[in-house]
Amino acid sequence: MHKPNILLIYTGGTIGMVKDYKSNSLKAFDFDNLRKNIPELNQIACNIKTISFEEPIDSSDMNSLYIAKIATIIETHYESADGFVVLSGSDTMAYTASALSFMFEHLSKAIVFTGSQLPIGDLRTDAKENLITAIQVAASLDKKGNSVVPEVSLYFEYKLYRANRTTKVNAEHFEAFTSPNYPALATSGVHLKFNKSAIQKMPKSKKLIVRKKLVDDVVILKLFPGITPAVVEAMLNIKGLKGVVLETYGAGNAPTSAWFIKALKKALKKGILIVDVTQCIGGSVIMGHYETSLELKKMGIFSGHDITTEAAIAKLKYILTIDAPKSKLKILFEKSLRGELCK
Ligand code: ASP
Q: What global pTM score does this model have?
């Protein structure tokens, strides 16, 4: 079998920083000398090529253009590389990686996102382990030379997750991410163990389709007790608005007040797509289970089932690029396209 070619893409974030002990400040890590700086990588039989954003960004500055840029780099090297590792700041990684999962259809190679809470070289850093194992995952090929994890995944602190199932849950623990509604795709310990039954199968079609355009005219409307008509109406009346992720309570429940129902109906009438996503960390929306979600179902709001908010916003931005009647978009939103929901 040939030595896998891995493309490492550095977009920014803590993982690309290194502590300069003399000045006690953080400076950019030299990815061109990756093997020299992290000699452990020599134990992984693979070739590594690195591409960095000319101006690395903090992931708080991530946007659809930068996401498209990552997609373009992967598309350009898709034939020559066997796997990809994307290094990004962890703050918005779940959003970015979810978006990539929808952009790539019929993906047959691994795209592994990782980052770290502490810079490389810092005391107790998580950066080295995350980077090394992410590369090991991307370089894992089966006997036929096919990727063992042919999907967009996210590796952090000994766990590999399906990216569009993840959410960042901790600002300081190394275990920064969780995947509340889907098991880990792999666990790293003494051995790197793949959970084969949870991993996407190789796509039937070999023809990769990359859609780099997303619709940005979307909003997340998170409910809270006491939310006022002025706030809801202002958000639903945003000029050019095309989609809303409505973050509801529990199993998809929302207020039954006449003003609230009226505001939603008005938005739907204007052609705005509204999706019902629970603000609970785990579990699923069951529209119609309680009276408080029955009305939402009747008026034509889509169910997000057990999707995360990060994946819902990415999926909505993607679905909105498709020129199809609302009934078709509803079917697409409510079924699993990239393993983002259990349905
Ligand atoms: N603020 C940083 C970022 O998200 C934190 C990190 O790298 O994890 O870019």
A: 0.96
Domain assignment present for residue 340? The answer is: no
What atom of ligand 1 comes closest to residue 12's alpha carbon? 9
Mutation pick for ligand 1 pocket among 57, 90, 155 (CB with most ligand atoms within 8 Å):
90
Q: Is residue 150 part of a domain?
A: yes
The 10 Å CB-count burial string (b at 16+, else e) for 39-58 is eebeebebebebebbeebbe
Q: Is the pLDDT of residue 146 over 80?
A: yes
Q: What is the end-to-end Cα distance of the chain in Å, rounded?
A: 37
Cβ of 4 closer than 6 Å to ligand 1, yes or no, is no
Specify the pLDDT at position 288: 85
- Residue 57 is predicted with a pLDDT of 94
Total domain count, the chain = 2
Summarised one tens digit per residue, pLDDT across range 308-326 is 999 999 999 999 999 999 9
Catalytic residue positions? 14
| Residue to mutate, 60, 166, 172, ligand 1, most ligand atoms under 8 Å from C-beta | 60
105 & 87 share domain: yes
Distance from C-alpha of 162 to C-alpha of 100, rounded to nearest angstrom: 12
Instruction: Provide the domain limits for residue 206.
Output: 5-210
